[in-house]
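Anyone up for a design puzzle?
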């Protein structure tokens, strides 16, 4: 059972919670994070979604819904630890961009990590594989429709903050 805090369009917390799986009431939003992790070689870590999930078998950045009582950074750190087994330092994260989608506020987080793929602990019901990719490989995967839509924004956003 996953509970979310609810927000208005201006990202004010409403003091209400919502149970995942039930359609959100009109004018109510929840908070979602996408977490991009890059190593010192400039490679981006991608994880492959479990085939039973929405966008199954596609590659993506780590992310998900922020739980009740968490802030955006806490949700980002939790999602990375749950899905990949990586414990990131809160001080090493940078919020790159925030936007409003149809049902949620979306925050894009950026972290640097040089974790070895063989040291990851993948969440079996969420992630079936992970790999580091360079920009050319990532862009080719996007062209070949091997990724979720979230990955197409990374290099544009990161170039604004370098």
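Challenge accepted. My sequence:
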């Amino acid at each position: 059972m996953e509970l979310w805090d609810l927000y208005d369009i201006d990202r004010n917390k409403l003091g209400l919670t919502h149970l995942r799986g039930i359609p959100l009431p009109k004018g109510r939003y929840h908070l979602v994070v996408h977490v991009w992790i890059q190593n010192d070689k400039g490679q981006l870590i991608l994880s492959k979604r479990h085939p039973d999930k929405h966008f199954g078998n596609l590659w993506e950045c780590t992310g998900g819904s922020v739980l009740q009582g968490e802030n955006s950074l806490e949700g980002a750190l939790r999602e990375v630890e749950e899905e990949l087994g990586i414990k990131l330092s809160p001080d090493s994260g940078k919020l790159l961009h925030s936007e409003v989608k149809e049902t949620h506020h979306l925050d894009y987080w950026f972290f640097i990590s040089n974790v070895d793929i063989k040291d990851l602990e993948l969440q079996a019901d969420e992630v079936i594989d992970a790999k580091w990719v360079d920009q050319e490989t990532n862009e080719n995967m996007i062209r070949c429709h091997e990724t979720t839509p979230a990955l197409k924004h990374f290099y544009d956003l990161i170039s604004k903050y370098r």
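A detail worth pointing out: The helical segments are 72-84, 135-143, 154-160.
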